Amino acid sequence: MESFVPHASGRAPSPGAAGMTLDEPQLLSRHEDGAELSMALWRFPSPLLALSSAPHGGGWGERHWILAAQVAGGYHRTDPADHLAGLARDLGLDGPGVGMLTAVDVRRVAVSREDGVAAAATVGLTHPSWAAAADPGTAAATGAAGIAGTVNIVAMLGRRLSGAALVNAVMTVTEAKSQALWEAGVTGTGTPSDAVAVLCPPSGPAEAFGGPRSRYGSRLARAVHRVVLDGSRRAGTR
Predict the structure, then answer these.
(1) Is the pTM of this model over 0.70?
(2) Phi and psi of 60, rounded to 5°?
(3) Is 57 left (phi over 0), alpha (psi -120 to 50) or beta?
(4) Which one of 120, 131, 166, 201 has the fewest beta carbons within 10 angstroms of its own beta carbon?
């Protein structure tokens, strides 16, 4: 059994809608692979609707929490979903949630908000790559390698999105990330192991659009652009 130690933490931004918050993350540490590794945990007062590419809790559905866990730089496990499920069990987390991995110290999370939208990102750029690389290779294709260079993004909106708009919002996050990396001089559109989660309230009137020129999509794009640009400038090639 691993031991988990709480740290002091700063406050993450709130999207600003009633009952919809991106609460201050609980910062924890654990000992694993001979190192002390950090984790950031967000718990929600009520479940949120999510669409995510994260290794644990990815896909579509309601989620109760998000866990961002740091791993050692030489991480080579090919079962990240099982690894994160084990961490969630050890933390006593109830209900379905989203889990992401990165070699970046998650206490370095960058945050931004804009009128009903909040975005948080951990930015590691050890292994940037172009999406249409000539030969991505087996390790990169599986996402098992390159964890050290991972850009993880969590975005939360204070208004429900339709199913199509939520998919479009994930596209918007990805476009804004790539724009920020380009502006930061990174030679790639991302890394082989990037993950994203977009969350919104599960009920209420739904926005039909989530693209970068839509009402909420444009705010989302700007918030993500800011956190990734800020994080990439501080990350260098870490």
Answers:
(1) yes
(2) -115, 140
(3) left
(4) 131
